[in-house]
Amino acid sequence: MSGALNAIQRMDALAAGQGGFFYPWTSNLGAGDGEEAYAELVERHLSPNLTVLEAGCGHGPDVLRFAPQVARYVGYDFSEGFVRIARERADQAGLKDVELICSNSSAGANGGRPRIPMGDASVDLIVSRRGPTNFILDAPRVVRPGGWLIQLNPAPSPRHAWDDELPEDLRSEPARDFDIAGHISGLLAQADLALHSGWSFDVPEHFTDARQLYAYLAWNQFHGLGLRAQPLESALPSLQAVMAKHAGPEGLDLRRRRYLWCARIA
Ligand SMILES: C[S@@+](CC[C@H](N)C(=O)[O-])C[C@H]1O[C@@H](n2cnc3c(N)ncnc32)[C@H](O)[C@@H]1O
Question: Which residues belong to any copy of the Methyltransferase domain (predicted)?
Answer without folding.
Answer: 52-147
